[in-house]
Amino acid sequence: MAFLNENYLKLKAGYLFPEIGRRVREFQTQHPQADIIRMGIGDVTRPLTPAVIKAFHDAIDEMASVQTFKGYGPEQGYDFLRQAIVDNEYISRGADIEIDEVFVSDGSKCDTGNILDILGRDNIVAITDPVYPVYVDTNVMDGRTGEVQDNGYYKGIVYLPCTEANHFVPEIPKTKVDLIYLCFPNNPTGMTIGKDELKRWVDYALANDAIILYDAAYEAYISDKAIPHTIFEIEGARNCAIEFRSFSKTAGFTGTRCAYTIVPKTLMAKDGKGQKYPLNQLWLRRQTTKFNGVSYPVQKAAAAIYTGQGKKETAETIKYYMENAAIMRKSLSDEGYKVFGGVNAPYVWVKTKNNMSSWDFFDLLLGKANVVGTPGSGFGPSGEGYFRFSAFADRQKVLEAMERIKKLG
Ligand code: MLT
C-alpha cells in the first residue's frame, strides 16, 4: 500500500467554508421553508460587467476561427494582460514593476498555497491571527509545522495576534522569522495598514532577510488615499516581497478565475550553502512545469477591466458592495454591536454581545434569523467572540438580513 502525506493528518478540521456550507445545508434540510440569507463566504453576487462580457464573447469568437484560434498560451499569462496590469496597477502608483515580474494565474488561493513549492521547509513562518485559513493549512500540508496544540496554534508557526488592542494590525515579531504572511485590506477583519506601518514591516524583512507574502486581493476596495494599494509602493519592497492580487473580488471573477502574482526579479532566497538565487526564476520554472496558464477568453475578459468603460463599470460594482458595507456597519452599530472594518474593505467584523462564542452566534443567527455569516474563531483563536459579515450580497438581502438581526434584539 502506498504511503500518504501524513502532514494532512495534522489538519485540525475541514476547511472553514465547506464546513459552514455543510451546517447550512443541514439546517435547510431540517427547515425547508427557511429563506436563508448568505453573508458567509466572500463570494460576489453582481454579474460580470458589459465590457468584460463583450471581451469574453469576442475572445470566444476568435477561438471559433482557424485564423485566430489559440492553443496553449504562455504559462505566465499573455502580454496584453500582463502589460495592462503593470500600467494600471503599478506604474500608475509609482511602483516599479516590470512585465516579466507578473504571473497570471487561476486564483490567489492557489498561488498563496503553491508559492510554498519554491520555499524551503526550514523557513520559520509568521502568520497573523485571525487569518485567511489557507496560509496556515497549506503550511501544515507542506510539513512546515508540528501538531496543533490545545490553544489552537500549530507548533512551529509564529502567530501574530491581531486584536482590538492593536487595532487588528499585528506587531512586528520579536524573534527572527523567514516568511511573513500579511493581508491588507484584511480578510477577515476588514482593517487596513498605513504606509508608515507597512514600511516598518518592509524594514524588518530587509533587516532579517525575510520575505513578506503580501495578499492584496481586496485592494480595489480602498477609498482612503493614504492607504497603500500595493506593498511595492513602499521603498525596498522589491527586495523582500511577493504580492498576490486577484480579479475575483475586484471584478466578479470568483467563478471565472483569474488572478496574478508579482515576484520581483530582485527578490532572492538562499540555498543551504548560502548561495543566493532569484525567486522569479524559480517561480517561472514552477509555473511552466505545473501550470498551463489561464484560458485566453478569461484573460481577455480580465484585461477589459482596464479599458475606460471597464474601469467605470468595475468602480460601480465596488461602490455597490461598499454601500452594502456602510448599511451593515450602521445597522449593526445601531443595534449595539461593536463594528470594525467595512470602510476600505468588503468585510465587516463584529464583536458578539455578552462574550457569546463565535459558533454560538452563528447558530443563533442561522436558527433565529436565517442569516449566515462566518464565525471569527474559524479564522484563528484570536477571532473567538467575533463574527464576519461579507458585503458581497444582494442589496435587498442585506437590508432584509439587517432587519432580521434587529428583530433579534
Ligand atoms: C472568504 O470568504 O474568505 C473568501 O471568499 C475566500 C477566498 O477568497 O478564497
What is the string of helix and strand elements?
A: HEHHEHEHEEHEEHEEEHHHEEHEEEH
Continuous helix count = 12
The fraction of residues in strands falls at: 5-15%
Question: What's the shape?
Answer: globular
Low-confidence stretches: none
Identify the quaternary structure here. Answer: single chain
Walk me through what this model shows:
The protein is 36% helix and 14% strand. Helix 10 (308-334) packs parallel to helix 12 (395-408). It has helices at residues 16-30, 50-63, 79-90, 108-114, 133-141, 195-208, 248-251, 279-290, 296-303, 308-334, 358-369, 395-408, and strands at 37-38, 102-105, 125-129, 158-161, 179-183, 211-215, 241-246, 259-262, 268-270, 276-278, 338-341, 347-351, 371-372, 374-375, 386-390. It folds into two domains: 7-47 and 309-408, Aspartate Aminotransferase, domain 1 (Alpha-Beta Complex); 53-307, Aspartate Aminotransferase, domain 2 (3-Layer(aba) Sandwich), CATH 3.40.640. The longest helix is centred in the C-terminal third of the chain and has 27 residues, at 308-334. Strand 11 and strand 12 form a beta hairpin. It has 409 residues and is of the alpha/beta class. It is globular, with a radius of gyration of 21 Å. The chain contains twelve helices and 15 strands. The structure holds D-malate. D-malate is lined by residues 41-43, 109, 132, 187.
